[in-house]
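User: I'm new to structure prediction. If I give you an amino acid sequence, what do you actually give back? Let's try with this one:
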Amino acid sequence: MVLLLPAVIFSQETFKGKVQELGTEMPVPGANVYWLNTEVGTITDFNGAFSIPYKKNYNKLIISFMGYKSDTISIKNNQDNFVHELSPSANLDEIDLVSRKKATSRSYLESTNVMNISSDELLKAACCNLSESFETNPSIDVNFADAISGTRQIKMLGLTSPYILIATENIPSVRGAAQAYGLSFTPGTWVESIQITKGAGSVVNGYESIAGQINAELQKPANSDKLFINLYGASSKRLELNTHYNTQLNKKWSTGIFVHGNSQQEEHDVNNDNFLDMPLYNQINLMNRWQYIDNENGIVAFMNFRYLNDEKQTGELDFDPDTDKLTTNAWGSEINTQRYEFSGKLGYVNPELPWQSIGMQLAVSNHQQDSYFGLRVYDIEHNSIYSNIIYNSIIGDSRHKIKTGLDFTQDSYDELVEDTDYVRKDNSVGGFFEYNFDDMDKLNLTAGVRADYHNRLGFFLTPRVHARYRPWAKSALRVSFGRGKRAANIFAENQNLFASSREINIQRSSSGDIYGLDPEIAWNYGISYMQGFNIFSRKAELIFDYYRTDFQNQVVVDWENPQEISFYNLKGESYANSFQAELSYNPAERLDLRMAYKFYDVKTKYQTGTKIKPLIPEHRVFANLSYETEIKKNSQWKFDATYNWLGEQRFPSTAANPEEFRVGEYSPSLSTLNAQITRVFSGRFEVYIGGENITNVRQDRPILAAEDPFGDYFDSTLVYGPVFGNLYYAGFRFKLN
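Assistant: Good question. You get back a string of structure tokens that encode the predicted 3D arrangement of the chain. For your 737 residues, that looks like this:
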């Protein structure tokens, strides 16, 4: 979705009001509001507020929402402070409405399987950047990519992040050169909310999504705190500062300045292998954000200007980049990234027909990474242009909605891999159409198709379908299927390979046009069931998800020979099955419990046979417990704890190594515990303390042949768990409204 603008922003001849539940002050978001015998209508926003075009001959207002009795209200004139209370029908009670206010929630109404993570959920842990924002979420797996770079890698449905479309305000952002480290380039305090979509997602957002989509919404200058300061410090001597300043320049323009800086300059070698357990780094991250609202003409616009400078150094303790760079004096690595971005949005909603809107997006970025790993050089420059236009309307009435539009993407890559230069330019242009049917009761169906032409991938179609059916009260049964296609950037996506002695082997195909390889194509199928119910008069939700991804073609990343890493096109079967059962329960007032069990069956046909994909636990157990005391005089305590248990993970084969440089076939299982306590002193000031990996679990020997890093058996990629051990932190947040 490009830019959806609710009708509530208009101040011309409009009728404004609010819809809430009878006998309470609980807002009813998403309620349909329209004038009798007209096509003039709108929906209520998250706070239950609405604004609808008004004429003197409009005198009957209809308000309806699933689970409530529809009402027709006589309106004699355009009155102020209109509030209407809807009565719940017999098959829906207040429990569903309360669930909408949770820090993490799923909708019973949408056709897609989306989890909404609010800023309240992000504050449960010190999520210093986007890669650390999923520790309290069972749908996303987080692990370190290697034992040297400190990079966190995420997985969904058993597949790594390249198969997930990661966007910032629905503009694809973590892709191409940014794939390995891009999640760490968005500070957590900049994020207003996150939407996680399981399955192929919407055709509106592109054709690359296979396992799912993650979208991060940023703080808006017009409704964010005027001043925000966050200072964070950890026992590892990591320091971080976040400062936001927002101001309204006039009735239409608002702007915000966001400053983020972090530093880690203390050397740590807990496991005594003579290698840093985490890199030394400095990052400065700046954003200037502009927001424009023209109430009278129905126009909203955003502009973002961003600059990033990120510097990392890692390797042996005695490595000095001034004297040892690209020598065998000591093994070391530097990863220096500069990134410039501009993004803009422009949206218009027809004041007379608020269901008609048009939006445009433009994003331009330059990403420059200069890096080396021991004696290996890897530099990449990526220039990207992304643009689209989307039109939203209805067919007949608001039960039938459509989205259609065009988009254009251009990516220019220049990669230096050791002594080889890879240069290419990718262009794609496409059109999409998506239809949504919502009977406002039992059925919600979204069906879409894309047609794209790519200079390397050719012409292709991308169909996707999502459907939600309500068999009975407080339930949602969802099914989905869709196709995805993408060009694999094999070096940018697998930069951990450079921190090993493995030789790089690309087995080119006769038709391959991207590093001599063919594009990846996969189908994703899913079914999900959600049921709300009561346990001892307290609300609960039970969710079952099953998803399968079948690859028609895949660029296989083969680590099964410990002396090399091979890239080749799939010849045979490759699939990922993912099952998840999740229970959310509110056992007492202000106490929330979330538990989940996840099972993965991920296999690929390698040249040595069909094998379980390495370093993916077959079983995982997750539990999160949070409690908040009652607010008294604006003060409050908040407690949160997260437990993860990971089953054994298959190592890629090391049988060809000498015995002292081998690992077992499977890793041991492990469990970690994170916790945080927050003390809110007022609406302006709060402090927090917490710990990560409190149980102090550490992987034994995360680096093979650490004593001989320039030898034949050096490998830092066989990481299945924490390397550093436990870490404790503290910080404060201060804000002025």
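You can read the tokens as a compact description of the fold. Here is one thing that stands out. Confidence is low (pLDDT under 50) at residues 1-12, 90-100.
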